[in-house]
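Minimal example, chain plus zinc ion.
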Amino acid sequence: MIFIYSDKVYADIGEHVFPIHKYRLVRRKLIEEEIATEDDFLNPELATEDDLLLVHTREYVRDFMGLKWTHRTERSELPLTADIRTSYLAGTGGTILACQKALETKIAVNIGGGFHHAFPDHAEGFCYTNDIAIAIRKLQRENNIKRFFVVDCDLHQGNGTAYIFRDDDDVFTFSIHQENNYPVKQRSDLDIGLADRTGDAVYLAYLKKNFLKIADNFVPDFVIYLAGADPYKYDQLGGLSLTIEGLRERDEFVISECVKRGIPLGILLAGGYAIDTNDTVTIHFNTCKLAYDFWKSLNR
Ligand SMILES: [Zn+2]
C-alpha cells in the first residue's frame, strides 16, 4: 500500500485557520470510499533530532525540541507544545517514509507534510520542520538518490525549500504560486508567480509547459510533489480560482508524467484552508485516489 498516516499528526492548536483534523478526515474518507482498509496505512516513526539536523541549525533544533519560544520558533504562527512538536515530527517522519516507500512502489503519499516555509534557522507560516528538505537529504545519504525535482503546487511560494537548495545543483525547486500573497519570496530554480484569480486553464498551461521542460532537461531521479489544496477558489488564505476538477487535472498531470517516465514520486498534501473543510478533504482525497489508481495500474 502507498498511504502513510500517523494519528500523531493531530494536535490541539486552539482556534486556528489551519484545519489540522483534515488528515484524519482524509484517512476516514479513503476507508469509507473503499480505497483502503484500516490496516492499509503505514505508520511512520517520528523524525529524530539527527534527521532535523540534516537541514536545521543546532540552535533552532535546540529551541524547537526544547519547546522554547524564541525569535527562531515564534514565526510559526502556531503555539508550541509537546503535542505540536510530535505532530511535526510525525509529519516529517511520514514524508521520509513516503519517499523511501516510493523507491519500491514508484508512488507513495504522506497524508500530511509539505512544510515548505520552514528555514534552517527558524520556523515560519505553520511550518516547524522542512520535511521536504529533510527527506531529500536522508534519501541522498541513505539511498544514494541524487537528483530531486521539487514540484511545489501549494498556493504559497516554497520559500524555505527554495532557500535551503539555492546553491544545490542536484535539487531543482519549482514553485507555482499566487504572486500577491504570503510569504516574502526566495528565489526557486523556477518560480511562476500567478496573478490573482488565475483559473484552471491558465494555471494548468503554465504548470504543464514548465514541468515538461524541467523534467526533460534536468532529468530527476526522484520527484517530490506538494499537492496543496489552497489554490482552490474558496480557500480562505488564497486568491487563485482553481476548481476541484482543475486541481484533479493538476494532480493527474503530475502523477501520470512521473509514471510515464518511471520516476519515483513522493506526494505530500501541504496546505488547504477552504471555507468548508469538506472541500479541502475532497481535494486531498482526489490526490490520494489518483495516486492509488496509478499505483494499481503499475501493479496489474
Ligand atoms: Zn499554502
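Residues 154-156, 228, 230, 271 surround zinc ion (CB under 6 Å). The chain has one domain: 3-298.
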